[in-house]
Amino acid sequence: MSQAAVPHHHFPTVLTTLECAPLPELARPIRDFVTRTARHLAASDETAETARLLVGELVANAVVHSRAAGLIRVEVLHDPECGHLIVSVQDRGAVVPKIPADVRPALDDESGRGLAFVHSLSAECGVVACAGGGKRVWFALSLN
User: At the topology level of CATH, where does 13-142 sit?
Assistant: First the structure.
């Protein structure tokens, strides 16, 4: 996982953006939103479902860690030059998570595995602190 905003990507095009309150009941519509966008790009069923799983994890984290008054922002981008679908979730949470390779949750921990899961299933992923507070967590999946 990288600390860069979107490394190794050329000039990705923002396809769509969604801003909403950090409410657990909005996770499903957000997953559906990202899945539809992936399919619009002719992503395979496997890629669309992986995007669904991973954005679900990032949104769940954003709901848990964001400030009550802040919005979460979901962006779906496309980098046609490298054939990647890129999804980012931004929240106002104060904690910027560590790279999964640096974190090893104990066997009995009830949390701390989500970003490792995202890291294991994505082509690339990263975390970046945002100016003014919060962070953006993103992943890229190959459309090829």
Answer: Heat Shock Protein 90 (3.30.565)
